[in-house]
UniProtKB/TrEMBL annotation:
Residues 1-22 are annotated as: Disordered. Residues 1-16 have a biased composition (Polar residues). It comes from the Bacteria. This is DUF2145 domain-containing protein.
Length: 323
């Protein structure tokens, strides 16, 4: 599930139409040790002060070829530049995440962020993507599905970690989930080969029904990609990939959207399709969805999680918290 359904029906994954940045499968913006290890380390040290945070972001931008985003997440995807403080915050989070990724010998991990406040649904993280080591786009590259500016379309994007955490988020909390080696390797190989075998349905629905053939959202794409790696077949279909995840123990979450709120509250937008669910669900208001929580809890139950790290309010958590 990509974002909270509100009157604006706002998805936090809006694929910003940036000039020369975030081009699909062409160039990712990366944070890592190669080739700029020394400058990234100095940026991390500088980031301990308010001025240093902004300077650190500037250093990262200069070192890694980054520029402030020309658009941001939201239904309008307007051209308002990202505020320097937000870019600095994103750069600091990217440094923390990249450093943690570098310390483990793993080709891939899941990384979650908080782009929409889902606390009313008892959820913390709203979006998750894969982060791939030595991807064609860069050292550490986030590969994920983004809604195109509140429309009914989506695309797959490869982004550097700074841009991944600079998309007008609620906060800079982050969680890394490392997977067992065999699954991680198969996923990394699959993602490096994109767009081949992408399992992508471009018709976007914020509350896509798990296993829907007609729609997809970012969390559904992640789940189906996991299922494809589990199936270990050459060219699995979306249906086969979802079925593999179900057989392996995946169970959908449920979010409650009362019928009265849906009808009277103006919950209509191009990126929300209630008709993806049967009439009984729409009348009852309990919608099955794929959430970050349901993905991670399924992976934990099935024994696919090797380790996790989490940051809340910029601080490393001794024990990862609720999802």
């Amino acid at each position: 599930m990509d974002g909270q359904v509100s009157q604006r029906a706002r998805s936090e994954q809006c694929g910003s139409r940036k000039q020369g940045l975030e081009r699909q499968w062409l160039q990712g913006q990366t944070v890592g040790k190669d080739p700029a290890q020394g400058r990234a380390a100095r940026a991390s040290a500088l980031a301990s002060t308010a001025f240093g945070r902004t300077l650190a972001a500037a250093m990262l931008a200069a070192t890694l070829g980054l520029l402030p985003a020309q658009g941001r997440a939201g239904t309008g995807c307007d051209s308002e530049p990202l505020a320097p403080r937000k870019l600095a915050d994103a750069a600091q989070t990217a440094l923390l995440v990249a450093d943690a990724l570098d310390r483990r010998d793993a080709p891939l991990a899941l990384v979650a962020r908080v782009g929409t406040d889902l606390s009313a649904q008892g959820l913390v993280y709203s979006h998750v993507g894969f982060v791939v080591r030595d991807h064609p786009a860069g050292r550490w590259t986030a590969v994920h599905l983004l809604n195109e500016c509140g429309s009914d379309r989506s695309n797959l994007y490869s982004q550097g970690l700074v841009n991944f955490f600079a998309d007008d988020l609620v906060n800079q909390d982050a969680r890394i989930v490392w997977l067992e080696p065999g699954l991680a390797q198969r996923l990394a190989e699959r993602l490096r080969a994109l767009p081949s075998g992408a399992l992508h349905q471009p018709r976007y629905n914020l509350i896509a029904r798990p296993g829907s053939a007609d729609y997809q959202n970012s969390t559904a794409w992640v789940l189906e990609t996991l299922g494809a790696a589990l199936a270990q077949t050459q060219t699995p279909s979306r249906n086969a990939a979802f079925a593999a995840a179900q057989r392996d123990g995946f169970r959908a979450d449920r979010v409650h959207i009362p019928y009265s709120k849906r009808v009277l509250g103006g919950l209509f937008s191009a990126n929300v399709a209630f008709t993806d669910h049967p009439i009984s669900t729409r009348l009852g208001g309990d919608y099955p969805v794929v959430t970050v929580r349901s993905i991670v809890e399924y992976l934990e139950r099935s024994g696919h999680v090797q380790a996790q790290s989490e940051w809340r309010n910029g601080r490393a958590m001794r024990t990862p918290g609720a999802l």
